[in-house]
UniProtKB/TrEMBL annotation:
Keywords, sorted A to Z: Ion transport, Potassium, Potassium transport, Signal, Transport
Signal peptide: 1-17
GO CC, one annotated term: endomembrane system
This protein's record includes keyword DNA repair: no
GO BP of this protein: inorganic cation transmembrane transport; potassium ion transport; regulation of pH
Source organism, top-level taxon: Eukaryota
Pfam families named among the record's database cross-references: CHX17_2nd
Record-annotated Cation/H(+) antiporter central domain positions: 3-144
Protein name: Cation/H(+) antiporter 15-like
Organism: Prunus yedoensis var. nudiflora
Amino acid sequence: MFVFAVHLVELSGRASAMLIVHDTCSNIRKTSKITAKNQKHSSPSDQIVAAFEKLETESEESSLFVEALTVVSSYTSMHEDICNLADDKSADLIIIPFHKQSNIDGEMDNGNSSFRGVNKNLLENASCSVAIFVDRGLTDSSNIKNDDGHGCCRCAMLFIGGPDDREALAYAWRMASNPSPNPNISLTVVHFIVGKDASVDLSPNNPNNDHDHHEDEDKNILEVVEENEKEKHLDDQYIESFVFNTRNQPSIRLINEVVNNGEETLKLISAMGNDYDLYIVGRGQIGSSPLTFGLSEWGDCPELGPLGDTLASSNIVARASILIVHQGGALVDELVDQHLSE
Ligand SMILES: *[C@@H]1O[C@H](CO)[C@@H](O)[C@H](O)[C@H]1NC(C)=O
Ligand SMILES: *[C@@H]1O[C@H](CO)[C@@H](O)[C@H](O)[C@H]1NC(C)=O
Ligand SMILES: *[C@@H]1O[C@H](CO)[C@@H](O)[C@H](O)[C@H]1NC(C)=O
């Protein structure tokens, strides 16, 4: 696994945009002239670089490679630099921090609108997948010990359906089992199944069926039904291959839950309470599933999708961190095919 750790620094004054590469492969870091000149500004960056170096040295066996970079640019063009870098390095996933920070009680502050702008632009324009990380102190969860006395992280992946959820599951799966099963990470996938009392309005005029604002306007009911069927088929295939391939891993399990509406979905998640340190969800679209109907009223960041927004804006899972994944390109569906042909 290659990690490109990118420190984003706002471009100020008349300086021109630049990219600084920190050499993490050798113990003696070659500091470029640019960082040396701004020594007092570069120290937070240095600490982060040092943390990544430590990670790299500690995980020699699992062959993790880290390259630390600093990008200096204006907030309005930061996403372009990140996208170019991601394309250049053929990155599969860009992980960015949420623009709001949490306090000790898990309450979020008002956030930073410049950071939010960068995130929105990235979600809109990156050609690879993008995940937003709502950090509520995941690093502290290393204090929790599992049976072997190892630090552990208890992850829950909430699977409702659709491309973003499949991408989120792919990432969760990879986290818990690659390159080999990791006893320090437990993964519970909660598969939400649409109950028979769920109201499904397939009319193309229903804004809830507006999966893609630009293309769906001319769709008729048949096309909507067909598309929903196709998505459901891909979901089922992927879940099936996940269950089959992880059947011998005790730290991974799948739970099926039948729910009929957004309210029941939330009730179920609240009941999970503080059982997990990290929730992984797909971003999804508002109204793409009856199981998230009405959830958008909860939050104020629609870019996180109905479920992600609800979890990040409420205290339903106040002490858990959240990773919201949005699929870019068609990577996961290639992965589905790959798993199925194996
Ligand atoms: C956002 O963060 C940057 C960098 O810390 C800061 O310069 C800016 O004033 C912040 N903006 C808001 C609205 O808080
Ligand atoms: C995203 O990319 C398109 C096409 O390159 C461009 O027209 C648009 O302005 C970009 N959006 C942002 C927010 O950069
Ligand atoms: C699990 O965590 C412990 C310490 O917290 C660490 O020593 C060990 O290498 C970890 N195991 C794996 C497979 O990462």
